[in-house]
Design goal:
Distance between the termini: 55 Å
CATH architecture of the largest domain: 3-Layer(aba) Sandwich
Strand order of the largest sheet: 7-6-5-10-13-16-17
Number of domains: 2
Shape: elongated
Radius of gyration: 19 Å
Strand content: 25-35%
CATH topology of the largest domain: Rossmann fold
Helix content: 25-40%
Order of helices and strands: HEHHEEEHHEHEHEEEHEEEHEEEEE
Structural class: alpha/beta
C-alpha cells in the first residue's frame, strides 16, 4: 500500500470511529508504531485529524475549538462555579508548598482565597502576579513574551524558566477536557507552557467547570491521566477511572 493511500484510509477510519489508538491503527493497517505515529503527525499538520496522546481523534470545525476568548469575556462565564472551584483549590495549599499558578480566570479567582503566606508562588499570569503581591504573598513571575488576549507570559524564555523549577503543586486552567484528547487549549504557545508546568509539578490540578467536559481545543497539553480535576458537577462515567476527579458544591 502506498503511503498516501494508507494516510487517506487512516483519515477515513478515524472519521468513522471519532477516536482511535495507535495500537488500533497498527492492527488495522498492518504497520509499525513508528509508521503510524509518523502518519498521524503529517495528517495532524495537514489539519485532517487531531493527534492526541496515544492516538488521534477526528478533526472537524464542529468538534474542535480553535479560538481563544479574551479574559474580559471569560470573566463573565460561570462565575459561581469558578468561585466554588477556586475556593476549594486554595484550601489545598500547605505551608511548605512551592505552587505554580497558571494564567486563566479560574486560577485568578483562586488567588482571592489564598491566605497561606508561608508557601511560595510562581505564575505566568500578569494579573495573577499583581494580585499575589497585593496579598503580600511570596511571588515570582516567569519571564517571556506577553500575550495580550489572555494576559499570560508565553514563549521559549517562559518554558526555559519553568524547567529550572520543581513545583509541589500546579493549578492549571484548560479550555477543554476529553478522554481522547486530554486537556486542550487553542494556542500552541500557551499549550507548551502548560505542558512544561505539568511536567515539573509533583501533582497538577485542573480547575474546570462542567462546561469544559467533552470540549476539544486544537492543542493537547496533557493526557487525561496526568492531572487531577476539580469541578462543580458530576461528570460522565467515561471519565471515571481515568483520573482523580473532585466535585465541589
Amino acid at each position: 500500500m502506498l503511503t498516501q493511500e494508507r494516510r487517506d484510509l487512516i483519515v477515513q477510519y478515524i472519521n468513522e470511529k471519532n477516536a482511535v489508538t495507535v495500537a488500533e491503527l497498527m492492527e488495522e493497517f498492518d504497520a509499525s508504531a513508528a509508521t503510524i505515529r509518523r502518519d498521524l503527525s503529517v495528517l495532524h499538520d495537514e489539519h485532517k485529524i487531531l493527534k492526541v496522546f496515544g492516538g488521534a481523534t477526528s478533526f472537524t470545525a464542529s468538534d474542535v475549538n480553535t479560538s481563544e476568548p479574551t479574559v474580559s469575556a471569560k470573566k463573565t462565564l460561570n462565575v459561581e462555579e469558578k468561585d466554588i472551584i477556586s475556593k476549594y483549590a486554595a484550601s489545598l495549599i500547605n505551608d511548605d508548598d512551592f505552587v505554580y499558578i497558571d494564567s486563566g480566570t479560574t486560577t485568578l479567582e483562586m488567588i482571592k482565597y489564598i491566605d497561606n503566606t508561608r508557601a511560595k508562588y510562581i505564575t505566568n499570569g500578569i494579573v495573577h502576579a499583581k494580585m499575589l503581591l497585593e496579598k503580600s504573598l511570596p511571588t515570582m513571575i516567569i519571564g517571556g513574551r506577553c500575550k495580550a488576549s489572555t494576559e499570560a507570559i508565553v514563549g521559549p524564555e517562559c518554558i526555559e524558566g519553568i524547567r529550572k523549577y520543581h513545583f509541589t503543586k500546579a493549578f492549571m486552567g484548560t479550555n477543554g477536557i476529553s478522554t481522547s484528547a486530554g486537556f486542550t487549549t487553542p494556542d500552541v504557545d500557551e499549550a507548551l507552557v502548560k505542558e512544561e508546568a505539568v511536567r515539573h509539578a509533583y501533582i497538577s490540578y485542573i480547575l474546570a467547570d462542567h462546561t469544559k467536559f467533552g470540549q476539544i481545543s486544537s492543542v493537547t497539553f496533557a493526557d487525561i491521566t496526568s492531572c487531577c480535576i476539580i469541578t462543580d458537577q458530576e461528570v460522565s462515567k467515561n471519565y471515571l477511572g481515568k483520573t482523580i476527579i473532585k466535585v465541589v458544591r
